[in-house]
Amino acid sequence: MSYAAGLLLATFLLSFAGLLLFLWSMSRGFFGSSEAAGRVIFEAKEIGLVEDPAAPDVRNTGEFQAVMNRTGSTGEFSLLSPEEAERRLELDESSRLPVLLCIASAAIWLVIASVFGLVASIKLHVPDWLVSEAWLTFGRIRPAHLNAVGYGWCSFAGLGVCLWLLPRLLRTPLEGARTAAVGAVLWFVGVTGGVGAILTGHSAGLEWLEFPWQFDVPLFLGGTLMGVSLLRTLAKRQVDHLYVSVWYIAAGLVWLPILLVVANIPGLHFGVQQAAMNWWYGHNVLGLWFTPLGLAAIYYFIPKTLGKPIHSYNLSLIGFWTLAFFYSQVGGHHLIGGPVPGWLITLSIVQSVMMIIPVVAVGINQHRTAWGHLGALRYSPTLRFVVLGGMMYTLASVQGSLESLRSVNTVTHFTHFTVAHAHLGLYGFFSMVMFGAIYFVLPRVLNWEWPYARLIRWHFWLVIGGFTVYFIGLSIGGWLQGLAMLDANRPFMDSVNITKPYLLVRSFGGAAMTLGHLVFAVHVAMMLLRRGREREGAALLRRPTPTPRGATAVAGARA
Amino acid sequence: MTRLKQRPHLREFDDPEERDRPLPRLLLFLVPFMMLWGGYYIATMDTTADPTLGDGRTRTALMPAVGGGAANGAQLFTTKCAACHQSAGQGVAGVFPPLAASEWVTGSERVLVQILLHGIQGEITVKGVRYNGLMPPWKSLTDEEIAAIATHIRSQWGNGASPVTAATVAAEREATASRSAPWKGESELSALK
Ligand code: HEM
Ligand code: HEM
Q1: From the alpha carbon of A124, which atom of ligand 2 is closest?
Q2: CA distances from B40 to A151, A346, A400 (A)
Q3: pTM (two decimals)
Q4: Residues in chain A where the model's pLDDT stays below 70
Q5: CATH architecture label of B74-190
Q6: Whether complex ipTM tops 0.85
Q7: How many Å lie between the centroid of ligand 2 and the Cα of residue A437?
């Protein structure tokens, strides 16, 4: 065994011993009972079902309990009292401006980015389409798609949801909402400028870091302003116990600026080291920025809409700390086979597989919370998107762990299989969760219901159907492509020709997704402009049957 | 702002909390198992690659060994020569001479290497047909690459001449190192034989 390998092994075993110690002390209860601490935030607990003039049919009726039981709610959480609801309204109002800015920007970028993606996708099987203008060529449209989804849609959606969640979870009005709003505007400027620079041929050339540094500056400043406002709120919090979503959000907010700064220092990175830094950054943006925001939202919305506590505090702890511990070192698995020192790649592969621990912990926690209540998915749009997103998180991660093994990566690396995985993660998991979250957040922030349940239904079926076709088609095509490339007896062109039908299928799936995004964006615009039908009560995906008057109101609790 | 009679907030549940439960068995078994696997993977990793390489590697160190390998010659031929001499080596009548069954290709390997190194500008007869065009020089390619191309064209399309080694190319390059102009057609080339 070489010196490097020996050192690596020793470090690995030592740090793992730390993890075992952590688990042991946890099973001994050294971390104390969480429930006692947790209850501090929930003032209504002992009140039970309260006077609720707005929902008089609901209270103390047999129907109420019947519906709770039927749709699976255990009724462990009570509905809010008017005073509590008033308080919550104030919290939501404190963050209204930046939240709306972020969500509106997210919807805009979602549509633009999807169109870019669709154009790039069609070009892969109709290569002569739209080639007369330089800015429309694949080499520009594709990075424009990537950056528009990453920094436009995903980041804006994540920031908007965080800005709304933190005040609620901390029971503290958002500090410096105007600063945060300025931050959102700066972020928008950065993304617009960066995508424009890519389209006009001024890409910086490293994947995920294509924006020229001039546009990283407003991005960094904007992110910092929003982050400062959130961290100031954290400092003023009026609760003792921090709910698990808060950990993820706070950590993500600290990690992102570090990543942005280290990766963008000009003149520091070159050669192989630059490649290693590139993927250290690339994977950390996914793992330490998008993933924590997505998980924070899942951890909030599943129990919230079901009215049921999270399965286990201990699992939350393990899931968070092991993610923080393992994820930062997995970037090397994007460079397997490249001219990078072998020990670095081995470390990244081992840590990628170790990610199974947080993924299993989070998975058990989320799925055990939702399990047995899946019937409620038929009614609540939020729950539908968020629960499916949670399942796809587990899937994407397990797939990722396997994909990082050398034997599998040899087949998949230069193929569309990687792209399918990328969409399972950033679309199936993250984007789905954000859709669900936005369906919950906007009515609260605007005090206006979603005008058309039918549009939500269209959105859901278009994106889920389109995505299924997209993912399955591309995974099969990518795998066959990889096998064809490895076969030395077949000419390279075989590996290209073999993917053609699958690329066509992807364009169809992608077109459905894009259409779904348009529906969603139009609906968001209607909300913002208060257009469309005026509605009292939640826009549920279907009416609970048979429809006792109380049932509607209670099922509405889940939307 | 208009307030709805039934605000969305009023049908909300409390904010979520977490239950206190012991860790599931599955996880307690999983963690040590993962630890063993990780240790095993690191201990058995391939450490023949020098971890200090990184940026210190040259282009040749990163490239697989070439020595007249058929695959490489074919690839180079496609990228460098096929545009003029066509992929089947048949050339274009009156403009680009054929390589298939050409006496210049299958004949003296020294002359072939000289043609490839410096190119031709002047009259040349190939298979009884006269050509007067410009064949570009390929001096910038490495000895291995020129050897691979020469070997390739000598073995394709019915040609059956012996392979050319990188050492031959190196010697020929050395011998005409001072030359900068292309060979002036057949006359000068024949003198080389
Ligand atoms: C345990 C968790 C995960 C592991 C071990 C993992 C592993 C991998 C591997 C091995 C690749 C392919 C590298 C290559 O051959 O080029 C990859 C690509 C990718 N993964 Fe994951 N993945 C995980 C979870 C996720 C999640 C949760 C997301 C989304 C938030 C995600 C998003 C992506 C993206 C976008 C790419 C493509 C990157 C690019 O080429 O631009 N992954 N991942
Ligand atoms: C809005 C949600 C979406 C997200 C978050 C997303 C994310 C991504 C990511 C991370 C990549 C980089 C993959 C890699 O490097 O391995 C990518 C590439 C791509 N995406 Fe999307 N995407 C979305 C929607 C779409 C849609 C609707 C289409 C339409 C077909 C599409 C088509 C493509 C294409 C063609 C590529 C380039 C693949 C390649 O280079 O071979 N994407 N996307």
Answers
A1: 35
A2: 39, 11, 20
A3: 0.76
A4: 1, 29-80, 536-538, 541-559
A5: Orthogonal Bundle (1.10)
A6: no
A7: 22
